[in-house]
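Weekly modeling sync, notes
Attendees: S.R. (lead), two postdocs, one rotation student

Agenda item 3: backlog of single-chain predictions. S.R. asked that every request posted to the team notebook include the full sequence so nobody has to chase files. The rotation student volunteered to paste the first one in as an example of the format we agreed on. Action items at the bottom.

Example entry:
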Amino acid sequence: MTYLQLTRGVAERDFVFPPEGTPTTLLLFTQAKNVLVNRAAETGISVALLPDLRWARRDIKTVQLLYPSMAKMEAKARSADDAWLYEDGMITEASAATAHIVACPNRVVRFQS
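Predicted structure, as returned to the notebook:
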């Protein structure tokens, strides 16, 4: 697994972009993870549906991952592997990944929040 984060560069804490010519900051790290031979790839995962409250709390000014972390912990408390967040009847994303739904004509997928 590779994580990559690219920013506009180091600057004072402000809401304006740093001056043109500011060197960008690149952060990378890798983690060995077998994505093909593991329980989730073989049997699938269970998910808990939770309301997507990230943008409903506009009074909390943050770009960190507090709500997705809390959603993942709530999913674990419900004996699920992950949480899918929903808003207005639509899945917005998963707590720790992008949610992908593949429709299979011969399988029934049940969602309950």
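Discussion: group reviewed the output briefly. The chain has one domain: 2-94.
Action items: rotation student to repeat for the remaining queue; S.R. to check formatting next week.
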